[in-house]
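ingest -> validate -> predict -> emit
validate: passed (alphabet ok, no gaps, 193 aa)
predict: started
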Amino acid sequence: MSIVLILIISYLLGSIPSALIVGKVGYGVDVRQHGSGNLGGTNTFRALGKKAGIIVLLADLLKGTLAAALPTLFGVDFNPLLAGIPAVLGHCYPIFAGFRGGKAVATSGGVLLFYSPLMVGVLLLLFLLVLYFSKYVSLSSMLTGLATHTYGILVGDKILSLTTFALCLLVLYRHRANLERIMNGTETKVTWL
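emit:
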């Protein structure tokens, strides 16, 4: 199997619109018509509740993990982080949902989980701490993205550092409206903690 084929499969995995599937099949609801309109876990939590949100969160995480595992599964010498990037892009811009997807956080986490479960465990604690004190999922996501990139620099892993830089930029870009709302004091706070 070639690297190009792995990248294509990775993108297609990421393009599976978990939130859309869970919403339509389980609830008869298109989550894009509710809340932020994003096909991600946070909007699913808000639109459909905890059970649906957890299912979508886990599915989006799994997309990233499976994409990062593709080189190992197919015996190809290719860095799992690089194999996972197309899945994150697919999650944000899914071919199966009109290129309107999520904000890259859970699928990025899935890619990183395959690469370093311990790192992701520590970053998850950071995410939850920021979320607990700020009540902003978006702020927690952005700060965790920055912390992930900082970790990549500190450990001297060039591919991790470059990958986390790209993922961090994508997360910040996808959350630009949230950042503006935080600065204006109009960002929605979580109520399900």
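The mean pLDDT is 93.
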